[in-house]
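We now fix the convention by which a protein and its fold are recorded. Think of the row as the fold of the chain written in a discrete alphabet. Here is one such record, which you should read through line by line.
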Amino acid sequence: MDHDFTEQQIEAARVLFAGPCDFMLGVAGLEQLPETDRPEVAFAGRSNVGKSSLVNALTGRKTLARASNTPGRTQQLNFFNLGNVITLVDMPGYGYAKVSKTQIADWTKLIFQYLRGRPNLRCVFVLVDGRHGLKDSDIELMKMLDEAAVSYRVVLTKIDKIKNEELESVVAKTLEALKKRAAAFPGVAPTSAETGAGIPDLRAVIADYA
């Protein structure tokens, strides 16, 4: 993790994430976006990167974000109110070929408009499968974020599925790629929803934006 948090910060973040976290609404068009009265962080990633599992692990719930075996199921922006202090946004998965080109174009448009026009959006967490590292579709999203001037951080998922030396290699390659990115935070957060590795620190990073 790219931060050293105190035990108090880790504990405060744990308490925040253990508190109420309520589904607000799902948004398929910009006219439905909720008020911008709280800071917001968003989670983006390729279909089946483990986004729902990570959101559930962060909040200690099994069903907050519905994990699905059908990639591409989250086709809208889902908003969650965390303790009335910060809004979590689960974004549609990308990079999956079994949906129509029109759907992909619609999602891309929605996501870009959301990113560009959301003044309270503090950070986008770009989830990348730790077993594979950055894919072309991740790079596309990062380009989009650079263009929209929205700051983002890379979170590696499923690190329990790879050996330490493989993880070190993926982290090094990812850090190298991030150096060329204008809006990227120059660090990587390795996590596992399965074992809980990296989850307390990631909670603290998110709580920091509240």
The chain is about 35% helix and 20% strand. The chain has one domain: 7-208.
